[in-house]
Amino acid sequence: MSTTPRTVISRPLFAGVGLAALLALSACGSSDPLGGGSSSPAGDTGTASGPAEGQTLVIGSQQYYSNEIIAELYAQALEDEGYTVDRQYQIGQREVYLPEVESGAIDVFPEYSGNLLQYYDKDTEAASAEEVNTALTEALPEGLSALEPAEATDQDSYNVTQEFADEHGLSSLADLSTVGSALKVAANSEFEARPYGPQGLSETYGVDVTVVPVEDSGGPLTVKALTDGDVQLADIYSADPSIETNGFVTLEDPENLILPQNITPIVSDKVDPGAAAAIEEVNALLTTEELISLNRTSVEDQAASKDVARTWLEEQGLLEG
Amino acid sequence: MNQLLEAFAWISEPSNWTGPSGILARSGEHLGYTLLTLLIAAAIAVPIGWWVGHTGRGRGLTVALSGAARALPTLGLVTLMGLLLGIGLIAPLTAFVVLAIPSVLAGAYAGFEAIDRGVVNAARAQGFTESQILWRIEAPLGLPLLIGGLRSAALQVVATATLAAYVGAGGLGRYLFLGLKTQDYAMMLGSSLIVVALAILLELAFSAAAWLSVPTGVKVARRGAAA
């Protein structure tokens, strides 16, 4: 990915995302996001009967702004094809929404291939994007299938500041072994337990790091820890525009330590070939660069997912109506 | 029930207690943050509360300000402070102090207000200076309510100190976040139970302190009234 430093733009506080996630999670276990009257926030009254004879496709998204944008891309593409869509966005994390997807309450969900695979198969040995996709097809439960993944990935990545990279001549994780001093990495606390965390880094690249837990998923607090020099490394999602904004250098991962996280739509049996084709058409144009620019529009212009998605789909010529 | 059993199993596993990120170390950090917060909050709120209680001035403003401070969401404050001050202990500590001040402040001035004005006036009539009235009459008589304020602040802070882990400062919140993100609910529930145990411990300590803080004369008078 390109890591050219550009003009530094101060990032708005979307730490609220983390906050909201926490609040939602505190209610997890008992809450059924689809229960209780299902008041749909959808503005989809125009197309009453789609090709699937009036059947409504429910689209969900994680409690992650970027995921909601992708869900909205699928939703508008489907509506454009004449399908009726019910939007159920911002549903916690996997433990909360996957049971809903499995039960058939949600029909379309944008997922991340590697993490989804690890949810179903903790000890998976798949490493490359292709291996992950193959393994995922086998690991998915009955009634669910994965559509063609996008080229775009949004995955954990080890980042350093430009100065630190220049000082030590770093471009890959393997180069870290030459730094010599103690290395600290800012990341969510679960990073410690992940296969690509400190243990994996030590086994694969012979580099020892300690984790400084900062719980905003690579958000502004993590970025600040890195720019302040409190840590030398930060785990930031690769599609996060803050990497480019701050001129961070993402260290390459030649040994595939970090599982690829290609954007992969998970769909139920209710999604017919026509709907699948509409979603895959979007996916085919979704590269990591495009995803970063979508995220940037959302974060920096504070634009709603609906508007971000519509503008992009129009630019790509995916909307007919 | 199964979850609860697993949580107890997590707590009773000896290897979970030792080491730099063991339960002992984390509980020590957690209790340390709580006590440090109370100390700072008391250093700020007690003089203000006593001044308000002694002079009777600025009461409306103090009540309004501390009431407003109670409404601040602490996680938001932790994040905001973290963005201003960077990760580490200072940011969450500031947020916890803001959380603790209203209760301590209320305890301090309510303690003074609850004193029979006749007692204060009698002292003044006998030639007590204002500072003697403050230290010999109002402070001791107001102490039980002040300790009550500290007690309720301690309860809030010990529960909220889990947020220190949000910005890398440790404490028992480490287990909560780690358990949440790795689906280790035994760890989450287990560490929550330890927070509860710390809260009970603090409650017991403060209720003992509150009982001890009632001046002997007041106890005697109360006993006399009851008899």
Automatic annotation (TrEMBL), chain A:
Source organism of this protein record: Micrococcus terreus
Region annotated Disordered, chain positions: 33-53
Pfam family, one: OpuAC
GO molecular function, one term: transmembrane transporter activity
Occurrences of domain ABC-type glycine betaine transport system substrate-binding (ranges): 56-315
Alphabetical list of CDD domains matching this protein: PBP2_ProX_like
GO cellular component, one term: ATP-binding cassette (ABC) transporter complex
Protein name in the entry: Osmoprotectant transport system substrate-binding protein
Compositional bias of kind Low complexity: 33-44
Top-level taxon of origin: Bacteria
Signal sequence extent: 1-26
Keywords: Signal
The keyword Disulfide bond appears for this protein: no
TrEMBL record, chain B:
Annotated keywords: Membrane, Transmembrane, Transmembrane helix, Transport
Boundaries of every ABC transmembrane type-1 domain copy: 31-206
Topology with respect to the bilayer: Multi-pass membrane protein
Gene Ontology cellular-component terms listed: plasma membrane
Signal peptide boundaries: none
Keyword Membrane part of the UniProt annotation: yes
Transmembrane intervals: 31-53, 74-101, 153-177, 189-212
Location(s) in or outside the cell: Cell membrane; Membrane
Main localization, broad class: membrane
Classification via Pfam families: BPD_transp_1
Gene Ontology terms: biological process: glycine betaine transport; transmembrane transport
PANTHER family named among the record's database cross-references: GLYCINE BETAINE/L-PROLINE TRANSPORT SYSTEM PERMEASE PROTEIN PROW (PTHR30177), POSSIBLE OSMOPROTECTANT (GLYCINE BETAINE_CARNITINE_CHOLINE_L-PROLINE) TRANSPORT INTEGRAL MEMBRANE PROTEIN ABC TRANSPORTER PROZ (PTHR30177:SF33)
Family per similarity comment: Belongs to the binding-protein-dependent transport system permease family.
Protein name, entry field: Osmoprotectant transport system permease protein
Organism annotation: Micrococcus terreus
Lineage: Bacteria, Bacillati, Actinomycetota, Actinomycetes, Micrococcales
